[in-house]
Amino acid sequence: MPHIIAIDGPSASGKSSTGAAVARALGFAHLDSGALYRGMALVAVRELGAGPDTPLDPRAIVAAAERNGLGLRFDGRDYTVALRGEPVGEAIRSPEVTALVSAVAALPEVRAWVNRHLRSAAHAGHSLVVDGRDIGTVVFPDADLKIFLTASPETRAERRLRQRGEPVDRAVLAEEAARLAERDRLDAARPIAPLRMAADAVPVDGTALSFDQQVDRIVALARERLG
Ligand code: CDP
Q1: Does the CB atom of residue 105 touch ligand 1 within 6 A?
Q2: Which of 18, 92, 187 to mutate to test the pocket of ligand 1 (most atoms within 8 A of CB)?
Q3: Ligand 1 centre and the CA of 139: distance in Å?
Q4: Separate counts of helices (H) and strands (E) for the chain
Q5: Model pLDDT for residues 84-143, shown as the tens digit of each residue
Q6: Which residues of 34-63 are buried (b: 16+ CB within 10 A; e: fewer)?
Q7: Angle at 38 between CA 37 and CA 40, to 5 degrees
Q8: CB of 102 closer than 6 A to ligand 1?
C-alpha cells in the first residue's frame, strides 16, 4: 500500500528541501504542492498580466493553466511542475510570482484544480512525501504521518536569503522576514484551507536543528509509524 507523509508549515521553514531529503531516505517520491501554486501564479503573471493591483479572475487563471499545459511531471523519482511537459525551473521563484502566489492560492477554483492534480499523483501508486500548507488538514487527511515544520521568523528569513545567495545584512534580513510574515498572515487568514496544524500532526521546530538533524528526526518518526 502506498504511504503518504504530509509536511506542512509556514513559508521558508524548509519543507521542500526537507521533504525531498526525507523522500530520498525512505525511497518515496517527493511532491512540492507550493510549486504548483507558484506555477498557477506564473501563468497568471505571464498570460494574464496579473500583478499586485489587478483583480484576479479565477476562471481565467484555471483556463490559462489548462491552455498552457500546466501540470506535474514525474521523472521516475520526483514530481516537478511543468508547462507542456517542460519543467518550469526557477521562473516560479521570481519576486513577482512570490508576491502574487498567496492571493492566487486563496482562490477556491485554483485550490480545487491544484488538489485534483495532487490527488491524482497519489493515485499513481508511489509512496509520497507531500509538502505544503493544507496537506494534512485538507488534501490528504488520512496521511500516514503528518509533520508541522516551523522555525523562528529570523531563522527562516536567513535561510531564504542564503538559498538565494544574497548577503545577509540586518536591513535585508528584516525586509525578508516582513515579506515572509505577510505571506504567512495571508495563508493563515484565508477562509479556505488556511495554514494551521492538523490535530494529529507532530510539531517539529527546526530553529535549533541542523538540516540533517531535521531530516533524521522526520525519517525516524516515519520509520516508527510505518514499521
Ligand atoms: O517556498 P515557500 O515555503 O515560501 O512557499 P511555497 O511552499 O512555495 O508556497 C507558495 C505559496 O503557495 C504559499 O505562500 C501559499 O500561499 C500557497 N500554498 C498553499 O496555499 N497551499 C499549499 N498546500 C502549498 C502552498
Answers
A1: yes
A2: 187
A3: 14
A4: 8, 8
A5: 999 999 999 999 999 999 999 999 999 999 999 999 999 888 999 999 999 999 999 999
A6: bbbbbbbbbbbbeeeebeeeeebebeebbe
A7: 65
A8: yes
Q: Rounded to the nearest whole angstrom, what is the distance from the C-alpha of residue 172 to the centroid of ligand 1?
A: 22
Nearest residue (CA) to ligand 1, atom 20: 105
Cell 479572475 appears where? 57
Report pLDDT digits (tens) over 204-220.
999 999 999 999 999 99
Residue % of the chain over a pLDDT of 70 = 100
Candidate from 32, 33, 185, 197 with most ligand 1 atoms within 8 A of CB, to mutate: 33
- Gap from CA of 125 to ligand 1 centroid (Å): 24
The pTM of this model reads 0.95
